[in-house]
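Bug #77: duplicate submission created two jobs. Keeping one. Sequence:
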Amino acid sequence: MLDKFLKYIAQTSDAPMGLEISHAEGPFFYTTDNKRYVDFISGIAVSSLGHRHPKVIEAIHKQVDKHLHVMVYGEFVQKPQVNFAGLLTANLPEQLNQVYFVNSGTEATEGALKLAKKYTGRTKLIGFKNSYHGDTHGSLSVTGRDVYRDPYLPLLPDVHFLSFNSKENLDLIDDDTAAVIMEPIQGEGGIIPADNQWLQEVRQRCDEAGALLIFDEIQSGFGRTGSLFAFEEYEVVPDILCLAKAMAGGMPMGAFVSSAEIFQTFKYDPPLNHVTTFGGHPVSASAAYANLKELLSGNYLQRAKEIEQITKEKLRGIGIVEVRGKGAMLGLQLESWDLTKKVVEDCFENGILLGWTLHSNTLIRLAPPLIIEDDLLHEVLDKILESVGMHS
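Kept job's structure:
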């Protein structure tokens, strides 16, 4: 099967992991050669309630028996979309009261940028260095990492980058600015939480300039940081909120959320000026509704905080610089690239999948599912610690 995979599936690197997946359940996935792996990155922050959560699977089965796609987004009343949008907005600040469903995180970013430009009538965009918002052209335009941007230049004009957590050049947010887009916790940039005071100053500067503030919570949303959304911990509310990843329990789905007033601008000049065929697919929406109901009814937000406490207390010692982040969105900073590579490879050989790329250098991203039990959590952390000690 691997040879066919390499022949027919377009590749993104010369060295894919190449595991042939048999099935997945809870915090584990299994390969066709009967090896079990702990998914310590939750499918890159997607499977926050583990793989194939029973409530999500039940909701998918029920919807499949009713209907799949019936009409492009926004034309037919579909109960799964309405139910999920109602539950989602009921758990957001009052001004975030309407949802536009899409298929992915980068589509949520694209829609948010278009909405901000349409509402304000402006074109200038402000992003932040080391940010990441997706791989499509608009999303890349506001991504502050040259390693992703440079191969595709030129991108959108009139985009400016500020330093994250720095008050320098905040005056660039001015009367020409349509939007400021940022991650409350930078993910690809190294798991860097925003400073509370600084974030409030950014909000104030946007208000003064009439610019919209967009929060990208594609990775940090749906309980990963210990609150439903990371911005809740800062008492700063965005004008537009971008969501995806953990939204639908493993099904593809994204959204951007804003106010009814701001969304009005999508209705005219011309009508239907932002559309999607599969956005809000009824199966994904059913899965998302079940996923959010479970997330709100369980102890998952507290569990994310417990995971943070246990991990930060345990991962200390020679070779470890720090563990940073919030909840179950953590970054393990090691002393060298060589050590990082060896630890990730060692854990992989021992059935533990960690998050690391060549673009991350000395950072290992840790994003375990919120369902992980203490015994397994300690087992994985012990193995990481042992590996760091062995190679330091």
